[in-house]
Automatic annotation (TrEMBL):
InterPro entries: AAA+_ATPase (IPR003593), ABC_transporter-like_ATP-bd (IPR003439), ABC_transpr_PhnC (IPR012693), MetN_ABC_transporter-like (IPR050086), P-loop_NTPase (IPR027417)
Cellular component terms per the entry's GO annotation: membrane
Pfam families with a match to the protein in the record: ABC_tran
SUPFAM superfamilies from the UniProt entry: P-loop containing nucleoside triphosphate hydrolases
NCBIfam families: ABC_phnC
Keywords attached to this entry: ATP-binding, Cell membrane, Membrane, Nucleotide-binding, Translocase, Transport
PANTHER family on file: AMINO ACID IMPORT ATP-BINDING PROTEIN, PHOSPHONATES IMPORT ATP-BINDING PROTEIN PHNC
Domain ABC transporter, first and last residues per copy: 9-256
GO molecular function, one term: ATP binding
Residues in coiled coil: none
Protein name as annotated: Phosphonate transport system ATP-binding protein
Length: 265
């Protein structure tokens, strides 16, 4: 049994090397249950690698590093442990490219969130329990896209697809959402709606949220805490209010100001 108050993720001294490149270099971060944390940093700084390591989609380097999810060790000594499957059930993953099955309806995509709970053959035949179907429609209402339930996913806008992906995480029963660039492919209005939805799930439902963002202004506006990576190391971990221009230039380099104002345009 895991304690309900256990941290979403406890990352301890984790490194990850690809060839000669250290994507993560001694990273330690703890994200508490119910926290909403933005992961920022320049391109290639290790943000996606950190998220993928937390979900066990990628093994970390052997050594003293370890990762626990809701109190269960999912990575240790360079190996993904047997606890990872149960841990993944508690983590809803959201990706930049939405990861919905394009030829299926939005409703069917959301139902896929139940697959961990019923036998795969039942899912393949669409034999979903009525309670789960109800849950899926509730989730679609909750994220504001119930009117599109019957529409094929690949005919929906990016914002509608991303909200569908969040509904799928809700149906899965996720206790935290790990979102990798969830708004990078969206227009500004859809991006704001998705960020507001993540904030609502965090504040109203108490879901933990770890979100990687290229847009620093979104990180500051929507997240109380920011963790910044640079070349695989944590260079800032604190309140988003502490991110002044000087510190952001330290994180992103001198070209930061131009890039920042571009995203606000
Ligand atoms: N599977 C892989 N094989 C080889 N190198 C990899 C692999 N995955 C990541 N890397 C390298 O690890 C480093 C960190 O990559 P990562 O994708 O984590 O960065 P990021 O901060 O998420 O970047 P971006 O903001 O551009 O998405 C980069 O130098 C990248 O090229």
């Amino acid at each position: 049994m895991t304690s309900p108050a256990a941290a979403v993720a406890s990352v301890r001294d984790v490194s990850k090397t690809f060839g000669a490149r250290k994507a993560l270099n001694g990273v330690s971060v703890e994200v508490g249950a119910g926290e909403m944390v933005a992961l920022i940093g320049p391109s290639g700084s290790g943000k996606s690698t950190l998220l993928r390591s937390i979900t066990g989609l990628q093994s970390i380097d052997p050594g003293k590093g370890s990762i626990a999810v809701f109190g269960e060790v999912v990575q240790k000594d360079g190996r993904v442990t047997g606890k990872v499957r149960a841990a993944r059930q508690k983590l809803g993953m959201i990706f930049q490219q939405f990861n919905l099955v394009g030829r299926l309806s939005l409703f069917s995509n959301v139902m896929l969130g139940c697959l961990g709970r019923i036998p795969a053959w039942k899912g393949t035949l669409g034999l979903w329990p009525s309670a789960d179907k109800l849950k899926a429609m509730e989730a679609l209402h909750r994220v504001g896209v119930a009117d599109y339930a019957a529409q094929r996913a690949n005919t929906l806008s990016g914002g509608q697809q991303q909200r569908g992906a969040i509904a799928r995480a809700l149906v899965q029963g996720a206790r935290a959402i790990l979102a990798d660039e969830p708004v990078a492919s969206l227009d500004p209005v859809s991006a704001r709606k998705v960020m507001e939805l993540l904030v609502e799930l965090n504040q109203r439902d108490g879901l933990g949220v770890i979100v990687t963002l290229h847009q620093v202004d979104y990180a500051i506006r929507y997240c109380d805490r920011v963790v910044a990576l640079q070349a695989g190391k944590v260079v800032y971990d604190g309140p988003s209010t502490g991110l002044d221009t000087k510190r952001l230039i330290e994180i992103y380099g001198p070209e930061f100001e131009d890039a920042f104002w571009e995203t606000k345009a």
